[in-house]
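[Q] Does anyone have a clean structure-token version of this?
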Amino acid sequence: MNLVKLLFLAIFTLLLSACNSESQENAQMTNKSNPKIEPFVCAFEKDNLPEIDPELEKQYREIRAYEKKQIPNKDEVNITNQYQLLADQGHWKAASQLATRYLYGKGAEQSYFKAVEWFQWMADKDIPLGYYNLAVMAEKGLALKQDKEGAWKYYHRAAQLGNPQSQYRLGEIYLYKRKDDSEGISYHKCALAQGYRESGHALGDFGLIEGNSSKALYYYQAAALGRTGSMLTLEGVFRDGDFGYEVNEARAVQYDKLYDRLKKNPDLKFPNLSEMLPLPPHPEQGLYNPETDRNEMPE
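[A] Here you go.
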């Protein structure tokens, strides 16, 4: 290899190293997003979100509605640019959408680093969803160096600010990895109180592990307010007589019909499901009372 080629290779290597160094530097966390883990107190996300300019919110809703009507990849670049304009004006929801688009390369070249920058921007403003997404990125090592300890802190901060996804994630970790049932259940119950159906199903699963079928069905029913899998579980229980319940074909058919409606429209909710289809007592365990955390046999 001649001297010119050697010099070219050396310069190219230095430039590549500089680019990689710059990318890593851009992905570093700021001091504010290195939170301390504090004792968990249930908080709701809606109480920890900044106010949004009404005009910007109106524009955001219009873009979201337009986005949902589009055939995939038909107008993605324009949609991304519209979110960029709103994010630059401080609209955090648009910033979240923009970061997600960079994450998956929708309407822009895929860039984990740009996604992190916007998630970081959100976290610096103490927006719960920003911390949650930083936790996921750190846990998976996307744009950031894989950092389990950092992810652990970000999940806790997001949960402290009421983010239900983080509360669910921590609930699962405490229940099954750290074997701290009390802490895990507390996180899941807080997320469920915000309508996070995945935590409802998780509490149902844990009820089965405890051998409490009545408790399990109570939480599956809570999750089935908007979760197809939970609705399908309930349908199966009464069609097949699972978990010690008596077969009830008529009830199974009702759950099946609700499942079909929910499958067609995932945004559908059934807030009065417990009134529409009140759970029958388990033949041996009775009905679960969430206020006392006990099963009660009907008089």
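[Q] Thanks! Anything notable?
[A] The chain has 14 helices and two strands.
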